[in-house]
Fold this protein.
Amino acid sequence: MNIPKFDSRFQILPIKKIIKENEYANTYVFEYALGSKPGQFVMMWIPGVDEKPMSVAFDDGKEFWVTVCKVGPATKELFELKAGDKVGIRGPLGTYYSFKKGRHLALVAGGYGAAPMYYVAHEAVKKGYKVEFLIGARNKDLLLYAQKIVGLEGVNLHVATNDGSAGVEGFVTRLLEKVLQEQKIDEVFTCGPEIMMKIVGEIAEKFGVPARMSMEKHMKCGIGVCGQCALDDTGDLVCVKGPVMSWDYVKKLPEMGVYHRDAQGKKHYF
Ligand SMILES: Cc1cc2nc3c(=O)[nH]c(=O)nc-3n(C[C@H](O)[C@H](O)[C@H](O)COP(=O)(O)OP(=O)(O)OC[C@H]3O[C@@H](n4cnc5c(N)ncnc54)[C@H](O)[C@@H]3O)c2cc1C
């Protein structure tokens, strides 16, 4: 019988610093050599509450960051914690974005997707990439990481908000069409709401540009044991085959941009 190897990379870590990004998002800074790659995630244990997957938003080998949106019981509890309080961290886990030298990349982020995409941009420019960073948000107060992105050399920031309070008015996917019309882009990476990522994949395909995306499904173990994040109809597990997956693969999934399953496996249509 194959018994999964116990993941010994579990650490109890004190929160070094908490940065309030906006009313609904905080960044948690940990002083720890996580050794992650961009696109990977950690399982974050909030003692007495739950353990949840969270993407790595930055890792320089000395500290790493996680940006959390307040949506339910576990994340609400995280917002009650202070610097010095401890949480459990398992990881890094999952697949990641890999780079070839000196290409031109478009990153498309929605919601807290801007945080993990910041880490991608940070590493991409180190590999000699030129980066077009496209962020979408409902309004300017919900824009995440814009100031940090502006500070990255070799990265051009493009902003879209639904109400036009920052950047252009409308969806970030319209900005992507414009960038792909005007510039030669080698690849598109995206992280955000699934419907947005589906449209990003379709637009990239229309322009003949390959795309990869950060898939998000309910996860419990994060290491391929529990089956919670199995995809219809392939049965592949997002925690091990993803979260970073190619558009060529995800576009064939019946659930892509159509429905997701809750912790009990019940379907919810978007
Ligand atoms: C690989 C991965 C990386 C993630 N990275 C981050 C991150 O960097 N920052 C962050 O804030 N969140 C991230 N998430 C999402 C986060 O893990 C969930 O929102 C988590 O369930 C919140 O826990 P909760 O108890 O606060 O709310 P819950 O009660 O668990 O969820 C609140 C609401 O969100 C829905 N929901 C929860 N998880 C998902 C999901 N995976 N797909 C669709 N709907 C969902 C629930 O159905 C519910 O309606 C990530 C998820 C995955 C799979």
Helices lie at 73-78, 114-126, 146-150, 172-182, 194-206, 238-241, 247-250. The mean pLDDT is 94. The chain has two domains: 10-93, 104-269.
